[in-house]
Amino acid sequence: MHPQIEEIFDDAGSRYLKIEELRLVAQYASSVPDRLATYRSLRDCELDVMQWVADQLQAEMPQEPEATLERSITNALLMLRHCGLTMLLNQDSIVKERFLNWVQPTVEVYNTQAIDARLYQLLNQRLDEALGKQMILLSPILLMAQNALLPQKVESVNGVAIGW
Amino acid sequence: MISVADLLIDKQLPGNYFAVDTYVRGDLEMGLIENRQGDRLIALPETLIQAIYAGLEKETGQASRLVLFNCGRWWGKNFYARFREQLTDYYRLSPADMAMVEFLQALQQCWIAHGWGKIDLDHTHQQRGFLVVKICNSPFARLAPQNQQTSCHLEAGILSAFFSQLTGRDLHCLQTTCESMGADCNRFVLGLQKRLEPAEGMAAIADHDSIMQQLCQ
């Protein structure tokens, strides 16, 4: 759960929540059905989306060894799952501490930024088609993770302006 | 063609096993902390670490360094066994089969999760048979008596046993810089005991680079 909401509940036993605190809780609670629906959609389309991305990537980059592409795809799957959980629980620390801390050094060592940039472009494009309006909840987290991993910023989830 | 389904193991994808928020769990009612595998962890209060240093110094004098080093050896041996077990269970790979970068990532995250600071490896002198390990923000150095000697004998023992188990060679460990002496981090040199002997005791009078120069001559 979002740390700000957790903090609100720390004091909630000894007093009633203030209006602004209740507003924050209500805001999160009302978004839960959408978050759950988006999470389910993401889970259900993950394999199809990633398989399409993998096929495109392999066709566009036949010179890259399969193992290198597989590493980037595996990292992207991991990113998608962590972003999904972060979106569901509205807790940014999940993607930062569990995913970025883990994957960032390997991306730098294997120097896969060029592949990753194209992969994110394809991924965002396909996710946009598969999830439609549900991307509203997912895209800010996805962009945050992708920007942290690439030297040049990803500017749009629809994949128009990814620098690589 | 790449099959994405084949990249998953039982539909799962191993991530950061040692992420702090998932690795350390506590049961306040029982007064227990444990790791995600269910193994008990022990919390070392600062006062206890300081008392161990002071008590050993009083009881054994100069020998306290050797006592701490040997305790570290014992600890490191068990630590390696647990680390190996956790990696093998979770990633389905033994440390020996992991790519260096992934092994180092796991070790670094594991070190952080246990509150031992940030560990890094320096391979510059690997061709000459030495591995340099750097540890920053070590609680064992921070709480050690501040004097003109290196003080991370416990960690030196842990590293010696850990890397001996990993490489299958009996490696000794020598500390060359120490945060308790005002250094930016603690540096340890791992190598065969006989080859490290010329640098024994040099940390008090020479810097890390000079010691490495002496060792690599």
UniProtKB/TrEMBL annotation, chain A:
Family matches, as InterPro entries: Globin-like_sf, Phycobilisome_asu/bsu_sf
Taxonomy, superkingdom: Bacteria
UniProt KW keywords: Bile pigment, Chromophore
Similarity-based family: Belongs to the phycobiliprotein family.
Protein name as catalogued: Phycobilisome protein
Taxonomy of the source species: Bacteria, Bacillati, Cyanobacteriota, Cyanophyceae, Oculatellales
Automatic annotation (TrEMBL), chain B:
Pfam families linked to this entry: V4R
Transmembrane region(s): none
SUPFAM superfamilies: Ligand-binding domain in the NO signalling and Golgi transport
Top-rank lineage group of the source organism: Bacteria
Domain (4-vinyl reductase 4VR): residue spans on this chain: 130-192
Protein name per its UniProtKB record: 4-vinyl reductase
Protein species of origin: Drouetiella hepatica Uher 2000/2452
Record lineage: Bacteria, Bacillati, Cyanobacteriota, Cyanophyceae, Oculatellales
